[in-house]
Amino acid sequence: MVGVCRALLEKQLAACVNVLPHVTSIYRWKGTIEEDAEVLLMIKTRSSRVSALAEFVRSVHPYEVAEVISVPIQQGNPPYLRWVEEAVPPE
């Protein structure tokens, strides 16, 4: 997982990746209820880079269907938001 996180930073698709270990996911898949231990990544990027980021994650993810969702930032610490913009160049 660390390799994927580092690759996101090296490719300038993300400014920061938080790794949240020990996530239990319970979900319906192909008609059955599954339960798996997973790792959740919170990836900070520009909204204009979400498509490229999602494409990269899907290309390296072991699941047939990778969970990649985007949550818009409504408000935030202005210096932090500037840092994200500086770390991730626009498309």
Automatic annotation (TrEMBL):
InterPro entries registered for this protein in UniProt: Ion_tolerance_CutA, N-reg_PII-like_a/b, N-reg_PII/ATP_PRibTrfase_C
Single GO molecular function: copper ion binding
Keyword Nuclease: no
Gene3D superfamilies (UniProt xref): 3.30.70.120
Keywords, comma-separated and alphabetical: Signal
Domain of life: Eukaryota
Pfam families: CutA1
A GO BP annotation: response to metal ion
Subunit structure: Homotrimer.
Family assignment from sequence similarity: Belongs to the CutA family.
Protein name in UniProt: Protein CutA
Organism: Thamnophis sirtalis
